[in-house]
Amino acid sequence: MRGTGYQTVTVFAPATVANVACGFDVLGFALAQPGDELVATRRAEPGVVITAITGDGGRLPREATRNTAGVAARALLDATGAREGVALDLHKGLPLSSGLGGSAASAVAAVVAVDAVLGLGAPTDVLLRCALAGEQLASGSTHPDNVAPALLGGFVLARSADPPDLVRLPVPEGLACAIVHPHLEVETAAARRLLGDTVPLQAAIHQWANLGALVAGLFQSDLALIGRSLEDVVAEPKRAGLVPGFAAMKQAALEAGALGCSLSGSGPSLFALCATAAVAARVAPAMAAALARAAGVACDTWVSPVGPEGTRVTRASDAACAT
Ligand code: HSE
Questions:
Q1: Does residue 221 fall inside a structural domain?
Q2: Residue 190 sits in a domain of what CATH number?
Q3: Which of 19, 48, 76, 316 is the most exposed place for a label (fewest CB within 10 A)?
Q4: Is 1 contained in some domain?
Q5: Atom of ligand 1 nearest to the CA of 104
Q6: Total count of domains within the chain
Q7: Cα–Cα distance between 65 and 49 in angstroms, integer?
Q8: Residues contacting ligand 1 via CB (< 6 Å)
Q9: Whose CA is nearest to atom 1 of ligand 1?
Q10: Mean pLDDT for the chain?
C-alpha cells in the first residue's frame, strides 16, 4: 500500500551466509553484523543517481546503471511506476568479493530504502525481484540465497526464486556464528564456473539428505543434527582450493567446538556455526591462528548471532510528504 514517504531514509543491510554448506543456491542466513549502510534521498527528477560511495576503496561503479544498488533501485522505481526519483549514498561495511553477500546487501539496502523514502509499500516479492536484478549485475546469476535472508533476516530457504517462494526457518536460541575473512578476493562468477553443470547422483542424494536434515534440525533445535548436516559434497570440494589454509581452518573450528564449518557463499570467507556466542568467540581466533600458521594469510574475524532481522530502516527524516 502506498503511503507517505520521507525526505531521507537510512537503512542497514546485514551480511549473509549463503549455501550454509548443504543448501547450495537455496539456503542462507543473516548475521547481526557487519553490514552495509545506505541513505536514500527523494528527488523530484525521476530515476536514480549515486551521490557517494565510501568503504569500497573507489572500486565500485558510480554510474547507477552499472552499480548493484543503482540497478536494484531503478528496477523498483520501474516496477512501481514511481514518478519521483532517488539519490543514493552507500557506505560499504562489507569487504568486496568476500563471500559475505556484499552485492546482495547493497541491492537489498537500495530497494528497502527507496521503498521507504518514497512510501511505495511494495510487497516482499517485488522487493526480492528488484534486489535480484541488482545481484544479477554483480554475480552474473540470480541465486536468491543472499538476497532473501538479507531482506527477511534469520534462515531463509528459497524454494523458488521466480516466482519467489521463500520459506523462513526458525533459529535455535543462542545459535551464533564465527566468520573468518581471509584477505583474499574470490569472484562469485569465477567460483561458479568451477562447479560445472552436473552433480553425480550419489553426491546429490547425500546433499539433499543433509539439507532436509538441517531444516529438521533447525525446527527441532537439534544442535547435534544441525552439526551432522553441515556438510557440502557438491561445491566445497571444488572450491576449497581457492582458499589457502581452508582445511586447517575447518579443522580448527571443529576442534574449538563449532557445530560445523564451510565456505560462506563462494568464499573466501568461512563460517562456523556454534551453539552459543561464547563458543563462537573461541572458534574465530582458533580459525584465524590456523590460517596464519597454514598459509600466512591475514584475516578479519567477526562473531555474531544469527541475525533475526533483515534489512531495516535505522533513521528517517520526519519531513514526510504525501505521494
Ligand atoms: N550460492 C552462491 C554460490 C552464493 O555459492 O555461488 C554466492 O554468494
A1: yes
A2: 3.30.70.890
A3: 316
A4: no
A5: 8
A6: 2
A7: 9
A8: 18-19, 24-25, 143, 145-146, 188, 191-192, 235, 265-266
A9: 25
A10: 95
User: Which phi and psi (to 5°) does residue 16 adopt?
Assistant: -135, 150
2 contact partners, CB below 8 Å, separation of at least 6? 119, 120, 121, 323
Does residue 179 contact residue 271 with C-beta atoms inside 8 Å? yes
For the CA of 195, the nearest atom of ligand 1 = 6
Domain that holds residue 155: 6-169+308-317
Q: Rounded to whole angstroms, what are the CA distances from 65 to 60, 72, 134, 208?
A: 12, 9, 10, 38
154 and 135 inside one domain: yes
Q: What pLDDT, on a 0 to 100 scale, did the predictor assign at position 123?
A: 96
Residue 322 has pLDDT above 70, yes or no: no
Is the Cβ–Cβ distance between 90 and 38 less than 8 Å?
yes
The neighbour count for residue 14, using CB atoms within 10 Å, is: 29
Contacts of 239 (CB under 8 A, 6+ apart): 186, 191, 194, 195, 263, 266, 267
Supply the pLDDT for residue 137. 86
Q: 51, 59, 23: which is closest to 273 by C-alpha?
A: 23
Q: Ligand 1 centroid vs 240 CA: distance in angstroms?
A: 13
- Whether 282 and 313 share a structural domain: no
Q: What is the whole-number distance in angstroms between the Cα of residue 156 and the centre of ligand 1? A: 14
Nearest-5° Cα angle at 320, 316 to 323: 120
The reply to whether 298 falls in a domain is: yes
Rounded average pLDDT over 138-161: 92
Same domain flag for 42 and 115 = yes
CA-nearest residue, atom 4 of ligand 1? 265
Same domain, 76 and 192: no
Q: Which three cell numbers stand for residue 198?
A: 552436473
Question: Does the residue 290 lie in any domain?
Answer: yes
Q: What is the pTM of this model?
A: 0.95
SS3 state at 11: strand
Rama region for 121: left / alpha / beta (φ>0; ψ in -120 to 50; rest): left
Q: What is the pLDDT of residue 140?
A: 75
Q: Which of 150, 141, 61 is nearest to 110 (CA)?
A: 150
36: domain CATH number is: 3.30.230.10
